[in-house]
Amino acid sequence: QEEEPDPSDLSVDHDYFQEQIWPRLARRVPAFQSLRVRGSWAGYYDYNTFDQNGVLGPHPQVENLFLAAGFSGHGLQHSPAAGRAVAELVLKGRYESLDLRRLGWGRLLDGQPLKEQGV
After folding, report:
1. How many CB atoms neighbour CB 101 within 10 A?
2. In 3D, which of 20, 38, 89, 81 has the Cα closest to residue 59?
3. In a domain, 80, yes or no
4. Long-range contact set of residues 86-93: C-beta below 8 Å, sequence gap at least 24
5. For residue 90, how far is the Cα from the chain centroid?
6. Tens digit of pLDDT for each residue in 100-112?
7. Does 116 fall in a domain?
8. What is the per-residue pLDDT across 10-30, written as a single tens digit (0 to 9) for each?
C-alpha cells in the first residue's frame, strides 16, 4: 500500500504501471504480454458510499424509473447481468434469470447495507 501512487496527484505514473501493474496483469492474463499501452488517464470514480454495491431496480417514489447505478469500478463486470435484470423488470415486471432484489432500493431505505467485502 505504501508503494501506491498519491491519490491526490492525478498525473499518470507510467513507471508504477509498467513496474507494478503490468507484470501482474500479464501473469493473470498472458495475452497482456503482447499488448502495449497506447494511452492513459488518471481520475476519480464515483461509487455508492452506502455499501459500495450497485442499486438496481425500480425507484420507490418515481413511477416508471428503473436504475442500474452505483456499481463503480466493477460496473463493467456486472453490466451484462444488470442490463438483463433491468430489461426483465421493464418487459416482464419481474426478475427471471437472476433474482437481484437484494440490490434494490429497499436496503437503502431500511438502512441495511449489503456490504461489499472486495472494496
Report:
1. 13
2. 89
3. yes
4. 86/56, 86/57, 89/57, 89/58, 90/66
5. 22
6. 999 999 999 999 9
7. no
8. 888 889 889 988 999 999 999
